[in-house]
What does this fold into?
Amino acid sequence: MQGNRDRGGHAYTIGQLAKLAGVSARTLRHYEDEGLLHPSRTGSNYRVYREQDARRLAHIIAMRACGLPLPTIRRLLEDPGADVLASLDSHLRSLLQQEKSLEEAIARTEKAIAEIERMKGMDSKTAFDELKKKKLEDFEKAYGQEARRLYGEDAIDASNERMMALSKDEWNAKDLLEDSIKVQLRLTMASGDAGGAEARELARMHERRIRAHWGDAAYSKQAHLGLARIYLEDERFRAYYDGAAGPGATDFLVDVLETYLS
It folds into this structure.
């Protein structure tokens, strides 16, 4: 639908442009409030949208369809030096990472449902033992071969025996510690200090986790530090910590442990 023509080309009322673009007048007012659109006004204070406003709106709608937030769109429109393609490429990488994380979460949920179905009818002790066994089997599939190469068959077998011997309360405490480490990692990253009080608490929590798996007799700061450095080389560990606390979390955790353990 064409608007009225004036000396500057087509001119649209808010209703005409909204219909032309397939959005609501409320959306156009919201974009104006956010600093994305700048319609002129008549003497009666009615909004007037011109061709450049319509083109700008088309760009806004296209970028919104990609999922870009309004502040980012405003920056791209206002900054003549902004690289729209680079911003979209970065956004695409973020979406692909989210897609991967979502697929992994779906797969984990499906496995959890299958496990719950399988354990129906078991008594609580048998079900708990099955849960521990499944967790250790998953660890073996993901890390077992490399862990046995690095630490030896006896050390990994002893760790597995230690995990299987945990009571339900001890197992839950172990899981709680792992979740708490992720929270502490986010808090410490926010501080930006890899050697401060929050970082030291994070390192002590991580040490307790490693001791729980290895046992006090097998634990050493040197071995712990060696494990931490492996995190930097293994995308599985990066996915675990970065997924829990954000991009760069694995590198930051290793910096914390380097400071604490060296």
